[in-house]
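User: Please look over both lines:
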Amino acid sequence: MDIIEVDCSKKRQILSEVLESDQRIRKSNELIKYAKEDHRNQELVISIIEKCDMPTLKEVGPKQMDAIWLGLQHSTKEIRKKYFPQIEKAVENGDLSKQQYALMKDRMLMDEGKPQIYGSQIENGKLYKLENPKTVNERRKEMGLEPIEDYLKYFNIQFNPN
């Protein structure tokens, strides 16, 4: 991933465009365009973090912080791993949500072939393997996530904790 020139005084505007782009391409089915735009968004997010430091909620606002999170969540496992400490710190500072932390943590565990903690990741139409399924809803509640049974309804998946 290349670090590109970004104007730190325009990070709010850049991140607004990243968020808009990320959501638009997720709704389209143009896979080639999707990959190119995702790559561009990731370059922008990483360049902002590298050149301007990790933004805060006060500096840029909630939508722009979402753009930072989405740019990293939709990147490669290497990038997620590298920038996860900044995500953790942003969650501790209240700049990102516990839900965002949970989703990225689960994705990173999945990247490593380990069971997920919060039950947020689906693979091939099934819930990806889960650590201690019987207590998942306690962990989800701590992170502000809905019960797993409700979450899995969106994917037509029946939850079986056994």
